[in-house]
Amino acid sequence: MVDMVIVVALIGTLSAIAIPLIQRMDEAIALGQSQRMVASELQQARLKSVASNRIMRVRFNCPTGQQFRMVELVGTPTAPATQDTASNRCSETAYPYPAADNNPVTTPNQDGPIRRLDYRVSFGASQTVEFRPTGVAYSVNADGTSGQPFGGEGIAITLTKGSQTKSVTVNALGRIQAQ
After folding, report:
1. CATH no. for residue 7?
2. Phi and psi angles of residue 21, each rounded to the nearest 5 degrees, phi first
3. Total domain count, the chain
4. HEC assignment per residue over the chain
5. For position 7, what pLDDT does the model report?
6. What distance in Å separates the CA atoms of residue 124 and residue 139, rounded to the nearest whole number?
7. Which of 26-35, 78-87, 166-175 has the highest mean pLDDT?
């Protein structure tokens, strides 16, 4: 009986030590998975832009927090169409994935699905990233216009989980790197 009590106490002690470690590991996995998902979506947008000769954007917190979506620009970078800057631009109802038609003349027909981060992960301050058919990355202004490629080191899309952060950087040449 004494041996049984000692074994149960030992198992309880080891469990008390292991459970917090497993929870931290699970949180780190969720943050890393979200980082890889964002980097992958940015890379897909860049490749789709080059392959389809269309301007593609990746919008963050779109349509709501913890979500992002690759969308095709409607209009031009200096004069986006009203529907491109509309509040429902990320709606899968208004702009379904896959597109209702495959006609390359109509836009948008290159939009991707809405992607969702792990519920414990959120975006920091993230701006919309635009990829041109040359593969170059541009920043998008609040009014939907874009004009200059990213300068210097580019931008970082920050992902946060509690006190932990990871980022994905995009430079002017369109290079995407998870850090």
Report:
1. 3.55.40.10
2. -65, -40
3. 1
4. CHHHHHHHHHHHHHHHHHHHHHHHHHHHHHHHHHHHHHHHHHHHHHHHHHHHCCCEEEEECCCCCCEEEEEECCECCCCECCCCCCCCCCCCCCCCCCCCCCCCCCCCCCCCCEEECCCCCEECCCCCEEECCCCCEEECCCCCCCCCECCCCCEEEEEEECCEEEEEEECCCCCEEEC
5. 83
6. 16
7. 166-175
Burial track 93-122 (b if 16+ CB lie within 10 A, e otherwise): eebeeeeeeeeeeebbbbbbebbebbeebb
Domain assignment of residue 89, given as a range: 2-178
The average pLDDT across 20-48 equals 85
Per residue in 100-146, pLDDT (tens digit) is: 777 766 778 788 899 999 888 888 877 889 999 999 999 888 888 88
Structure tokens that stand for 5 in this block = 């009590």
